[in-house]
Amino acid sequence: MEDLQVLSKLGFDIDALREYQIICLPENVDDVSPSLQLLDSEDSITLSKLLKEQGVKCANSYDLGLETNVFERRGVDIWLGSIWILSHMALPVFTGVVGRLLGEKIQKKLEPAKNIDKLETAKVHADINIIDGKVSTASIKYNGDSETFLKLLNGINDSEKNVGD
Fold this sequence. Notes:
Elements: H1 5-9, H2 14-17, E1 22-25, E2 38-41, H3 42-53, E3 58-60, E4 68-71, E5 78-85, H4 91-113, E6 123-132, E7 135-145, H5 146-164
Parallel strand pairs: 1-3, 2-4, 5-6
Antiparallel strand pairs: 1-5, 6-7
Helix pairs in contact: 3-4, 4-5
């Protein structure tokens, strides 16, 4: 898997990664150097926990033995980090969990302010890599509104259903 070479450079055993359906990694995993620390976001950690609760074989930095710092942001934006989807079967669950996470997080952030106008300004930041066997089928670096992000995920999910028909 050529796209997984980024992960092998970090010391991951590619064969060991194949036991997972989804891998949630720090947002700066592609840019890391010896002088930079890997930074996990709270949202990425929460996403991996929610995926595991739904029965997805998911790994995060901790599961893979990476030493990272957790970066807490206080704004309404959602930072999902670098997500590697290694099994298309997990895509529908991933889409549902992300939708739930976005809804809960945005609502929680807006409650104290009671300012619904901020909902439109909430941005999602994610780097998604979808791998099918040895070939990358999609690589998406997204920095935009949450509604469009969910439409994008649903579009990918629908196209995967049509391929199998």
